[in-house]
Design a protein that fits this description.
The complex is a heterotetramer. Helix content of chain A is about 30%, strand content about 25%. Chain A is α/β, with parallel strands linked by helices. Classes of the chains: A alpha/beta, B mainly alpha, C mainly alpha, D alpha+beta.
Chain lengths: ~325, ~300, ~300, ~525
């Protein structure tokens, strides 16, 4: 990987307190993203991937709290920044796109105003006409035709795809370094999906944008991202270059996921579903959390949490890694 | 937009017409005003003569027809009790009522909205607790109960404000407080729940993503959306405030339309009752219409195509 | 509430436009205790209503002119009124009639208003316009004015009072349920059932109604509070229940004349009324959370 | 732990109510509400029509005596005294009443007062177009009125009427002929009334206030206070609060229960004077099938009630015992020698058994909401103790008048009699004589006495005649007299004013600041 990573996440832990008390939803998560590269965060819903993104920007719901860990962005730990400082980064250095484009825009404000806001906030552009001019430029950058007329229309007058483009425009308006995408295309139909992904790819290439792409659609991840991190029950169980991981998944859960994905699955024909369901947050089993559903689980799996094995830029947390891949894997650390 | 306005105006006119018809018929069931206009010793014959003079012996439908024709000319008839034009008597009582209703509404919004917003932003905090007590207490007792309480406290015990009457702004404070607290309770509760909903919305989260300061997110984005249902609620309240202020007006001797109606019904003064009810209905319907238009301005999704 | 259709003409929604899953309200300790107390007060009130005489230390109608205007004492906890009757016993006795009236009104207004609202919401068109016009008329002609005129016209009996109070509150039921049905009607599961060839009546009964019952119950509880308050206001204007019937509103109205000489005659029923309305409103909140969490939480306004 | 919302609500309510119930602030005695030139009077209701000939007497009583004059008027105790007329003679046959008029009297608009105005005033009352509420009192009585010269009028009657002068004093308000005839419509006079009284009309803000100011051209002694402002406060407790807070100088119709608290206030002076109106239960005794037709039953209903206890508790002692429907405060015609029926439930039960109702009977009684409800409930309770189960039917005062004036308020009804002419004939004629508007009673001997007394104009003879009538009505149990309620006023201690005895009329001719 070229140069120091743009974003380095170390043992990030986040919990949500509900009526039953605090529940850990992001547990000792670590990964990193270099400038211009894109990382896919995949896993079933409820695995904590969205919460990870939210934690990076410290935009947790009222009941959420970051328990520990570090999030180094350009070497600076975002978790210790005062609120005023992190607020200056949001929308300027780090952007984020949400899943449901339909409700991401304020229904009673024009597109122009919602775009102009960013310029006023971060670049101190007082003059309204100047803001409108920049807004048109931002809309054109996301391939929206007739941008000038769009400024005075309202969100409900636009299609889903169009709205997602506006969200992207808003996020890239101030040329951020990192763009978090929380399942940006799930709510869109296939053709629009490809257009949005194509747009993101182009922006990444032109602007050296680092992208974290949260999705449960492995096919999209493979087509779009460079690296992948598979999450299960709040933890990362496997990371590495996406081609290598999808070709030969080290962790049984990753293998199961791939088997469930249509084209990518090794065995054509019947799709293999992974039996059982992920543990509910707060009632996590001892040892490897996937053990109860793992077909190749051994005694040790359900007693001790697997070590973190590391080889050829790949890593996975599963006792069976040495056995499954005839490659000398180095133990990096043992985690609780 | 124009077609919609015309359609709504037609609907409003029908509503007012219905209201006038209902009152016109029902009040004639209450009793015969000649009993009050003539001394007890008057014979039935005297009453028959007077009824004929007043045109009350004609069938109700005929009377209603004549009344509508009169109404078209803007003539509400002569008040039996005051021997003054009924329209003038009703109009005379309108400013105090509008003043009281608006003051109560300003209080309701001025107290209700901030309390509601604060309670939504800091759920479970002291502000939230106080806000909810204020709201629940506000609607837990009839306004006249507060009126009596306020008079004892602020006029007698601490003698800051007059016990009643009309004229200076000081007279307006207590009645508006008594009526306003009742309305503020509703506004506070509605704003709190509506704001709580909106704060959970995606676009509020997105606003934060844009790096906007918290108060900007709250005021520019969340509040404007949260106030939409409050606008509808307030219009309903304003209608109730005009008619419903009767008990407050009675306690504070406030010369509004509520008390005028209360006295006129008791004195069987048909023409003034009809004039006053027509006026309140017209005002309510007008306000309803104005708010509909305003609603469309605030919320672009509402087009009156 | 109305979902946000992407385009086309949209009738002005009667309720908040945003149809969002509300934040799950955290039930802090304070709120649970308060709901418990509300439950306690409601049980006490129901007990007073059903087995009143047991809790009444004296006969509420017994007159003792020598004991006029006795302040609250060990013997008379709430003191006595102008002709020596025990105020506590009268407050307990008044519970029955107040609850009876409130119950009838809420049932009638809920039933009629609910049906009108569901009909208007589901069938739309002429029925919707008619119901909405009637609702407008009911609002344009404030309840108290209607009450005054009707009391004069048809006299002041219990049924008339219930009629007047029902006329004053049916519109709220109609308006809210219409909104509910409007949003339900566009839901997929209704379209599916219609595709399966179900008749309108069947859909109404089996699908629409069960879904709105939750709203109806919650609204009924909250509306009960305002009915009690409105009855008290009517009594203040001399339009409430007539003797020998007694209601809280009647006791307050009668007692207001003696605020100077004997404050307890007015304050004690006033406190009872406030406690009851407080409890009923809190119960409404609790029911709303349990029965239909997705319900627009502004119902409590 | 943060106290729960519920407990805080209770705390809040308790604090609020306890604070409010401490002793009211002392009234600011000695300081006029506005200034030394103004008297602010709080009335319970607004006088609707300001035309004294058209307004019902309960309304005209509030202002008429200050703005208008009559030929003869009533002094504070109800005795007749000359006003615009100097003297009054009655012809031997009682059919002709002639008056010599005062000279040098002018109306508020400067027009001189002459006999033409008196003739016009009476004829205006008789003319149906005016819709005058006084018409029935004169229409079958007065045949004609002539004005031989500028200072004398002669009225011819169809039959002798001993109380004619009282009726002239109570109903015949004098209005200016030229001014009134020039007005566009009969109703116009009400909007700008002109009279000869010490105060002239300034402004009437409907629902808010009625303002009068001193008429400098007044023929009599000019009143001390220049302006009078009437304010309308319907809620009894608010009226009391207004005077306590010093916003008004004089409050009328103060409730009995408020008098106790006001008395403890040295800033105020409380005046309780006999109201002149008999609070009684009217009995429909004509119907032979009704138990009330039986004298013993009527007496039983009288014996069953402890009137003194009711007066002490319900009316806080501010009422005097009543033996018949003519209270003792009348200037003449009352019968002080009568003793009220004592409280004797035993005798009452015995009378009921004697009358054939050992176990009592069921009935109902109308109760106008304007009276103190405790009285109604107490009487019904007392009757209940002797087996008479009476349902108390509370009814709005206006609705009650409608049925009470047309013999529909049977079988029993609480009622009262205001009397603007201070002569018992108005009450006796109305409720005892066979043809009375409020009479369902028929006693031939008493009827003969009434017919005879109507034409007697000599005061002593009328007084003796009425005493005999009252003795017989009490003896026959014609009604159930309860009490003569006091009229209570509260005024600033610096104000010097005395209310009219036995009447509702307000006169400020002698009012002054100390």
């Amino acid at each position: 990987m070229t140069g120091a990573p743009l974003l380095e996440v170390r043992n990030l832990t986040t919990s949500i307190c509900s009526s039953g008390g605090a529940v850990t939803v992001v547990d000792q998560v670590s990964f990193s993203v270099a400038a211009g590269r894109s990382l896919a965060l995949v896993g079933e819903s409820g695995s904590g991937k969205s919460m990870t993104c939210a934690s990076i920007l410290r935009l947790l719901p009222p009941s959420g709290r970051i328990e520990g860990g570090q999030v180094r962005f350009h070497g600076q730990d975002l978790l210790t920044l005062p609120e005023r400082e992190i607020r200056r980064l949001r929308g300027r250095r780090i952007g984020m796109i949400l899943q449901d484009a339909m409700t991401s825009l304020n229904p009673i404000m024009t597109i122009g105003d919602q775009l102009g806001e960013v310029f006023r906030r971060h670049h101190g552009v007082r003059d309204r006409a100047e803001r409108r001019r920049r807004a048109v430029a931002a809309l054109e950058a996301v391939e929206i035709t007739g941008a000038a007329q769009r400024l005075d229309s309202y969100p409900f007058q636009l299609s889903g795809g169009m709205r997602q483009r506006v969200c992207i425009a808003i996020n890239i308006a101030c040329a951020p370094d990192l763009l978090l995408c929380d399942e940006p295309t799930t709510a869109l139909d296939a053709t629009v999906q490809q257009q949005i992904l194509g747009l993101l790819k182009r922006l990444q290439r032109e602007r050296g944008l680092a992208i974290i792409f949260v999705t449960h659609d492995l096919r999209l991840a493979a087509q779009f991202c460079d690296e992948v991190a598979v999450m299960y029950a709040g933890r990362i169980v496997e990371t590495g270059p996406i081609g290598a991981v999808f070709a030969a998944p080290a962790h049984p859960y990753a293998e199961g996921l791939l088997a469930a994905a249509p084209e990518l699955g090794a065995a054509p024909g019947r799709l293999a579903a992974i039996p059982g369901t992920p543990p509910a947050p707060g009632s996590v089993p001892v040892g490897c959390r996937f053990a109860p559903r793992c077909t190749q689980a051994e005694a040790i799996c359900s007693t001790a949490y697997p070590d973190w094995f590391d080889w050829q830029e790949r890593s996975a947390a599963c006792w069976l890694v040495p056995k499954r891949l005839a490659v000398p894997a180095r133990v990096v650390e043992t985690t609780a | 937009m124009l077609i919609y306005l015309l359609k709504r105006l037609a609907q409003s006119a029908i509503t007012v017409l219905f209201v006038v018809a209902i009152i016109f018929v029902v009040i004639r069931l209450i009793g015969d005003p000649t009993h009050l206009l003539l001394p007890p010793e008057a014979t039935e014959a005297d009453r028959v003569v007077l009824r004929h003079q007043m045109g009350l012996d004609r069938p109700v439908l005929v009377q209603f027809g004549a009344y509508l024709a009169q109404l078209a000319r803007g003539d509400f008839g002569i008040s039996y009790r005051f021997s003054l034009p009924a329209g003038q008597v009703a109009l005379h009582a309108l400013p105090p009522t509008l003043m009281l209703a608006s003051a109560a509404l300003v209080l309701a919004l001025g107290i209700g909205i901030p309390l509601g917003v604060a309670a939504a932003i800091w759920p479970g905090s002291v502000v939230d607790q106080f806000g909810q007590i204020f709201a629940v207490l506000g609607q837990a007792a009839p306004p006249f109960f507060f009126s009596l309480l306020f008079v004892k406290l602020f006029s007698l015990h601490w003698a800051w404000l007059p016990t009643g009457g009309y004229g200076t702004p000081a007279h307006l404070v207590l009645p508006a407080l008594a009526l306003g607290w009742f309305a503020a309770a509703g506004v506070a509760r509605l704003t709190r729940s509506s704001m709580t909903d909106v704060l959970g919305a995606e676009f509020v989260k997105f606003a934060r993503i844009k790096g906007l300061a918290e108060q900007e997110v709250i005021l520019r984005h969340a509040l404007r959306n949260a106030l939409l249902p409050v606008v509808t609620y307030v219009t309903l309240q304003f209608g109730l405030l005009i008619g419903g202020a009767v008990s407050v007006e009675v306690v504070f001797a406030w010369p509004g339309i509520g008390q005028l109606l209360y006295d006129s019904i008791n004195n069987l003064d048909y023409t003034v009752v009809q004039a006053a009810v027509t006026l309140t209905a017209a005002i309510f319907v007008l306000i309803n219409l104005l708010v509909d238009v305003a609603y469309a301005l605030i919320d672009p999704r509402i087009q009156h195509g | 509430m109305v979902d946000i259709p992407l385009s086309g003409f949209l009738r002005r929604p009667a309720e908040p436009v945003l149809k969002l899953a509300p934040l799950r309200r955290r039930l802090g300790a304070g709120r649970r205790l308060q709901r418990g107390l509300a439950m306690l007060v409601s049980v006490v009130i129901l007990a007073f209503a059903l087995f009143g005489p047991i809790f009444e230390p004296f006969d509420p109608q017994a007159i003792d002119l020598s004991a006029s205007f006795q302040p609250p004492s060990a013997e008379h906890w709430f003191g006595t009124d102008q002709i020596g009757r025990d105020v506590l016993s009268r407050v307990v006795e008044a519970t029955r009639l107040t609850l009876l009236i409130t119950g009838c009104v809420v049932a009638l207004a809920g039933g009629l208003g609910g049906l009108a609202g569901i009909g208007a919401g589901y069938f739309g068109g002429a029925l919707d316009a008619l119901v909405m016009r009637l609702a407008d008329i009911q609002l344009a002609l404030p309840a108290i004015i209607l009450a005054m005129v009707l009391a004069g016209a048809v006299g002041q009996t219990l049924p008339n009072l219930v009629l007047v109070l029902t006329l004053a509150s049916w519109a709220r039921f109609a308006r809210v349920l219409r909104g509910e049905v409007l949003s339900l009607r566009t839901r997929d599961f209704i379209l599916l059932v219609r595709l399966a060839g179900a008749s309108r009546g069947w859909i109404m009964l089996r699908h629409i109604l069960p879904n709105v019952v939750g709203t109806l119950v919650v609204l009924a509880t909250i509306e009960a509070g305002s009915v009690i308050v409105l009855e008290a206001t009517l009594s203040f204007l001399g339009l409430g229940i007539q003797p020998p019937g007694i209601s809280w509103g009647g006791l307050i109205a009668e007692g207001r004349g003696f605020l100077g000489a004997a404050w307890w005659v007015c304050a004690c029923p006033g406190l009872a009324l406030m406690l009851a309305v407080l409890a009923v409103n809190l119960l409404g909140d609790a029911l709303r959370d349990r029965l239909n969490p997705l319900l627009p939480s502004d119902l409590s306004s | 732990m943060i106290p729960s919302r519920f407990r805080l609500a209770l705390l809040g309510a308790a604090i609020l109510s306890s604070l409010s119930l401490t002793a009211p602030a002392q009234a600011i005695g000695g300081k006029p509400a506005v200034d030394k030139d103004t008297l602010v009077v709080a009335l319970s209701a607004e006088p609707g029509n300001l035309d004294p000939q058209v307004a019902p007497s309960v309304d005209s009583a509030k202002f008429a005596w200050n703005v208008f004059d009559t030929l003869y008027g009533f002094d504070r105790t109800g005795k007749l005294e000359p006003r615009l007329a100097l003297s009054h003679e009655v012809s031997a046959d009682g059919l002709t009443h002639s008056f010599r008029l005062r000279d040098g009297v002018t109306f508020h608009n400067g027009d001189p007062f002459t006999s033409a105005d008196v003739k016009y005033s009476l004829e205006r009352i008789l003319d149906p177009v005016t819709k005058s509420t006084r018409r029935p009192y004169f229409i079958n009585l007065v045949t004609s009125i002539d004005a031989p010269d500028a200072h004398s009028v002669v009225v011819h009657l169809s039959q002798p009427d001993g109380a004619f002068l009282n009726k002239v004093a109570g109903y015949l308000y004098i209005v200016p002929k030229a001014y009134t005839q020039a007005l566009p419509s009969p109703e116009a006079f009400a909007q700008a009334p002109i009279g000869t009284g010490p105060y002239k009309f300034v402004r009437h803000e409907v629902g808010r206030s009625l303002e009068l100011t001193r008429f400098d051209g007044f023929w009599g002694e000019r009143p001390a206070i220049r302006n009078i402002v009437f304010r309308f406060i319907a809620e009894p407790s608010s009226r009391v609060h207004a005077v306590l807070a010093g916003e008004v100088d004089l409050v009328t119709e103060v409730a009995a229960s408020d008098v106790d608290t006001l008395k403890t206030n040295h800033g105020l002076e409380v005046l309780s004077i006999p109201g002149g109106s008999p609070l009684h239960v009217r009995i429909y005794s004509k119907d032979p099938t009704s138990p009330l037709h039986n004298r013993d039953v009527r007496l039983a209903l009288n014996y069953a009630i402890d009137k003194d206890a009711i007066i002490k508790s319900v009316f806080r002692g501010l009422a005097s015992p009543l033996t018949s429907i003519i209270p003792s405060s009348y200037p003449y015609g009352a019968n002080p020698t009568l003793k009220p029926y004592p409280y004797d439930p035993q005798k009452a039960r015995q009378l009921l058994a004697q009358a054939g109702y050992p176990k009592g009977f069921e009935t109902s009684v109308y109760f106008p909401a304007v009276f103190a409800r405790g009285a109604g409930e107490a009487v019904v309770a007392y009757w209940g103790q002797i087996g008479v189960k009476a349902q108390l039917k509370v009814i709005d005062y206006v609705a009650f008048n409608r049925i009470n004036n047309v013999h529909q308020s049977g079988p029993l009804a609480f009622s009262e009699f205001g009397n603007a002419i201070y002569d018992p004939i108005h009450v006796i004629g109305g409720s005892v004589s066979r043809t009375g508007t409020w009479s369902d009673y028929d006693n031939p001997e008493i009827q003969a006495l009434i017919d005879r007394i109507e034409s007697v104009s000599d005061l002593e003879q009328r007084d003796a005649g009425f005493r005999e009538i009252l003795r017989r009505t009490q003896e026959d149990g014609q009604a159930i007299p309860l009490a003569e309620l006091a009229l209570n006023y509260a005024q600033d201690s610096a104000l010097q004013w005395q209310p009219q005895i036995g009447g509702w009329s307000l006169s400020f001719r002698q009012a002054a600041w100390k």
